Amino acid sequence: MRPGTRVEVRTRFEARWTRGFEIAAYDESVDPPVYRVRRRSDGSILPVGFVSDDVREERRRDMWWV
């Protein structure tokens, strides 16, 4: 995924998908490589990286009950 892509991240506490983030960078200098994620509400980059299994492109929600 490229920087600016809107994503959902899997929370570490409840393992639920949460919206409101975007990719800030992809960091290959660590093992395993991680995505650096920015919170869209205030522009803050989260202090922890997310492996690819814990980040997915934001899913479109067409129905109000979804």
How does this model look, in words?
It is a single chain. The protein is built from no helices and 4 strands. The protein has a single domain, classed as SH3 type barrels (Roll), CATH 2.30.30. A 4-stranded antiparallel sheet has the order 3-2-1-4, with no helix packed on it. With 66 residues, the chain is an all-beta fold.
CATH structural architecture: Roll
Could you give the distance between the termini?
Answer: 24 Å
Strand order of the largest sheet: 3-2-1-4
Number of domains: 1
- Please summarize the sheet with the most strands: 4 strands, antiparallel
CATH class: Mainly Beta
In CATH, the topology is named SH3 type barrels
Order of helices and strands: EEEE
How much of the polypeptide forms β-strand, as a percent range? 35-45%
Specify the number of helices: 0
Question: What is the general shape?
Answer: globular
Structure class: mainly beta
Low-pLDDT residue spans: none
Give the strand tally.
Answer: 4
Topology (elements, then pairings):
Elements: E1 6-10, E2 17-27, E3 34-39, E4 55-57
Provide a concise account of the structure shown.
This protein is 0% helix and 38% strand.
List keywords for this structure.
SH3 type barrels; 0% helix; mainly beta; 66 residues; single chain; globular; four-stranded antiparallel beta sheet
